[in-house]
Amino acid sequence: MEEIKKLYFSVSEASKKLGINQSRLRYWDEEYGVVSIRAEKGKFRRVTPKDMITFTKIKLLSCIFNSEGIKQVLKGKIKVTIDNDLIVKYE
To answer: CA-to-CA distance for 67 and 69, rounded, in angstroms?
Structure first.
């Protein structure tokens, strides 16, 4: 049977896939404005596959940069390159 690709994930599903706790994911969302589908009153946030890519970038960047540095990278003010050996170069 062919796997159906999800259009969005719950915060719980996203945090499990990323290997982080839900509170960290919510913090990153509030700090960096990641989640593109906001929760309506009484409903849940929806994390899209594009959001998952951004969260994965933040997870990697958090090993190198502080919060302000991550914001600069996400805004494109600091260019980061990661090669196949996971060597990070930034300008």
So the answer is: 5
pLDDT at 76: 87
Burial of 66 (0-12, 13-18, 19+ CB in 10 A): exposed
Task: Output the DSSP codes for 5-40.
Answer: PPS-B-HHHHHHHHTS-HHHHHHHHHHH---SBPPP
Distance of alpha carbon 29 from the chain centroid: 8
Residue 47, strand partner residues: 9
Query: Structural domains in the chain?
Result: 11-65 (1.10.1660.10)
Identify the CA nearest to 27 among candidates 64, 75, 60, 67.
Answer: 67
Could you give the CA distance from residue 84 to residue 75 in angstroms, rounded to a whole number? Answer: 24
Question: What pLDDT, in 10s, does the model give residues 37-80?
Answer: 677 667 788 888 999 999 998 998 998 899 999 999 888 888 88
Which structure tokens are listed for 47? 């994390």
